[in-house]
Design goal:
The protein is mainly α. The chain is built from 4 helices and no strands. It has helices at 2-13, 25-38, 48-55, 62-72. The longest helix has 14 residues, at 25-38. It is globular and about 35 Å long.
């Protein structure tokens, strides 16, 4: 359990895309539940987590949708 939390924390800390800035703690927290639900096995880096979350966009929480949408701009 502790290892899973650490992996999740590291993964969320590295949520980035080519044009995106690092997420703030608040942004990571907004997408944590969605990451755990839809993208848990996704290896961070190269925009993979953002891409995974974006594929599930219709099912994301409204807070996470806003963050994902802002990364596209």
């Amino acid at each position: 359990m502790r290892t899973a939390l650490l992996v999740t924390a590291i993964a969320l800390a590295t949520l980035t895309s080519a044009a995106a800035q690092d997420f703030t703690a608040a942004q990571r927290e907004a997408c944590k539940g969605d990451y755990d639900k839809f993208c848990k096995g996704t290896i961070p880096g190269g925009g993979r987590v953002i891409a995974c979350l974006n594929k599930q966009r219709d099912q994301l929480s409204s807070a996470c949708k806003q963050i994902i949408d802002a990364q596209k701009k």
